[in-house]
Amino acid sequence: MSTLEIRNLHVTVETPEGTKEILKGVDLTINSGETHAIMGPNGSGKSTLAYSIAGHPKYEITEGSVTLDGEDVLEMSVDERAKAGLFLAMQYPVEVPGVSVSNFLRTAKTAIDGEAPKLRTWVKDVKGAMENLRMDPAFGERGVNEGFSGGEKKRHEILQMELLQPKISILDETDSGLDVDALRIVSEGVNRAKDNTGLGIMLITHYTRILNYIRPDYVHVFVNGRVAEEGGPELAERLEAEGYDRYLASA
Amino acid sequence: MTVTDHTQATADAAHSHGIVPDSSRADRVVSFDVDAFPVPTGREENWRFSAVRDLKPLFADEPADGHLEWSTSDLPAGVTLTEIPVDDAVVRTVRAPGDRASAVAAKHSGGAMVLAIAPNTVVDEPITIDLNGAGGDVRGHLLVEVGTSAEATVVITRTGTARYSELVSVDLCDNAGLNLVLQQQWDADAIHAGEVVARLGRDARLRGTVVTLGGKVVRLNTSAAFAGEGASVDLFGLYFADSGQHQEHQLFVDHAVPKCTSRVTYKGALAGASARSVWIGDVLIRAAAEGTDTYELNRNLVLTDGARADSVPNLEIETGEIEGAGHASATGRFDEEQMFYLRSRGISEEQARKLVVRGFFADLIHEIGVPAVEASLMKQIELELEHVEEEIEDE
Ligand SMILES: Nc1ncnc2c1ncn2[C@@H]1O[C@H](COP(=O)(O)OP(=O)(O)O)[C@@H](O)[C@H]1O
Ligand SMILES: [Mg+2]
């Protein structure tokens, strides 16, 4: 049982126009086995929240705390956060030319576990996970995200999540830009990981469609750098019908 | 990160970066007469980024007493290695030297070595020539002659130390194919100025790879000239400069006849405060060279503060009737997003750096096409990476 606790998180970035506050006091608690949908309009700060938790150097935490099972996440380096059990499936996964997917996966697994995985089971695990995500085995020899289509990149993110077995996973618009078939495949992967490991999930999304495939326990409406409203799955249905206008007007 | 990418460059020299050359590349002096080249001061167009002070001994118009120890793999049938007098070498060399060091090397070599592949001979195994220096001044002149429709791979590796100047002539007869690998694996104090001049006959194919990892100063200039239609050159280069190393590679591809293809791909990494690299890539498409297809690329990865990479692509085009002509040059630090991505998967900063550098070179290494060289190169890059970590700790 793990708990990610975000308290009064304030985050700024440097822009050409000066320092800009993007997160303005975020409170959120995610436990193992729970799925929290974070829904909000473009530019509301969802990716900033995801990156800040993962430790991206562009974002400066000016106030608040993030802990994982009581440990101060903000004190950890980027790789320490991953080793502590956090995972970020990125909205725009980065290409790393010349580094093969299989080498990357093995290196990451070894780093997270602190020891190299047993070769035979590892090869089998990777093969099985790729099959489940309908990824051609040839992906293993390609450069990380190099020339991948949008959908392939997202599947590759979920592949990593399944293999690295984090405690808490942040999925930043993993559904965006996917057709329905790909969405179903990716969602199955997320549900599988949750069933297998009791993963806690922060499911950042712009659209309600993915919620037909991944049932959220909680829905948080994210507007202008903070959580504007919280509720159960019924809140998503309301957003579906009404959109974000109601929140934007008052923001 | 600065990137220039001109897929269709103009016919003048206006987009050469930095100093605009005063004249066409075609007008550069070439001569076997040492006196045709004044001793370089560092102000000349082709010496302005060079480590002229260290190279000084290589400009002296006098014989040298040192030599490199040759060890050569067993030569298969149809392949010979012979020594010829200087006068003969001058006649058989495909083009006169383009600078003083090279002219001095040809004049004072004391005799040139000729590696000849007989016409129609196809050699499967790489021919390897190891040149080891035990110090001192050395002048060398080597000719590689590949007969009509012959094919071979030649790997020349320099080790040890010397103050070495050389001229390498590469003569590809019609339809010949050569994969030539030149490895600079010198000890840390070696000084090396070399010029490779290649001529390609009709339908000939040259794949040339330069690997520069060792030495204090290495300046290795490669010129390839097309003498017959339908020929192609692929020139690859890989270099890794640490503190105190100055590595310079100049290229000149001379498209003088129609329907030839050239690709130039050089990649370098630099680590350490005084690490220095220079890349100058000149491509000339003469009026007669219709249907030319050319692209040149130089990328530099600057791993620490203080290291400096100069990259100057020049494209001169005298005909509009070409297939394509372009160049790209990019010099940058580690990509922050790549590092973040890798580290967000638990990979340590040090290991992420190594992955990125290996990845940076990986495609280039796989282009060499000589498995033994590729494997040893991966190992050497690993060693370089260990140095990088030391440099970064020192920062
Ligand atoms: N690195 C950055 N530099 C400058 N502005 C940024 C940066 N990251 C985010 N922003 C700005 O912060 C706001 C929130 O962005 P983001 O977190 O990407 O929102 P969302 O993911 O909800 O669309 C936007 O106005 C965006 O332009
Ligand atoms: Mg976003």
Automatic annotation (TrEMBL), chain A:
<dbReference type="InterPro" id="IPR027417">
    <property type="entry name" value="P-loop_NTPase"/>
</dbReference>
<dbReference type="Pfam" id="PF00005">
    <property type="entry name" value="ABC_tran"/>
</dbReference>
<dbReference type="InterPro" id="IPR003439">
    <property type="entry name" value="ABC_transporter-like_ATP-bd"/>
</dbReference>
<comment type="similarity">
    <text>Belongs to the ABC transporter superfamily. Ycf16 family.</text>
</comment>
<dbReference type="InterPro" id="IPR010230">
    <property type="entry name" value="FeS-cluster_ATPase_SufC"/>
</dbReference>
<dbReference type="GO" id="GO:0005524">
    <property type="term" value="F:ATP binding"/>
</dbReference>
<protein>
    <submittedName>
        <fullName>Fe-S cluster assembly ATPase SufC</fullName>
    </submittedName>
</protein>
<feature type="domain" description="ABC transporter">
    <location>
        <begin position="4"/>
        <end position="249"/>
    </location>
</feature>
<dbReference type="GO" id="GO:0016887">
    <property type="term" value="F:ATP hydrolysis activity"/>
</dbReference>
<keyword id="KW-0547">Nucleotide-binding</keyword>
<keyword id="KW-0067">ATP-binding</keyword>
<dbReference type="InterPro" id="IPR003593">
    <property type="entry name" value="AAA+_ATPase"/>
</dbReference>
Automatic annotation (TrEMBL), chain B:
<dbReference type="InterPro" id="IPR055346">
    <property type="entry name" value="Fe-S_cluster_assembly_SufBD"/>
</dbReference>
<dbReference type="InterPro" id="IPR000825">
    <property type="entry name" value="SUF_FeS_clus_asmbl_SufBD_core"/>
</dbReference>
<feature type="domain" description="SUF system FeS cluster assembly SufBD core">
    <location>
        <begin position="137"/>
        <end position="360"/>
    </location>
</feature>
<dbReference type="InterPro" id="IPR037284">
    <property type="entry name" value="SUF_FeS_clus_asmbl_SufBD_sf"/>
</dbReference>
<feature type="compositionally biased region" description="Low complexity">
    <location>
        <begin position="1"/>
        <end position="13"/>
    </location>
</feature>
<dbReference type="Pfam" id="PF01458">
    <property type="entry name" value="SUFBD_core"/>
</dbReference>
<protein>
    <submittedName>
        <fullName>Fe-S cluster assembly protein SufD</fullName>
    </submittedName>
</protein>
<comment type="similarity">
    <text>Belongs to the iron-sulfur cluster assembly SufBD family.</text>
</comment>
<dbReference type="GO" id="GO:0016226">
    <property type="term" value="P:iron-sulfur cluster assembly"/>
</dbReference>
<feature type="region of interest" description="Disordered">
    <location>
        <begin position="1"/>
        <end position="20"/>
    </location>
</feature>
<dbReference type="InterPro" id="IPR011542">
    <property type="entry name" value="SUF_FeS_clus_asmbl_SufD"/>
</dbReference>
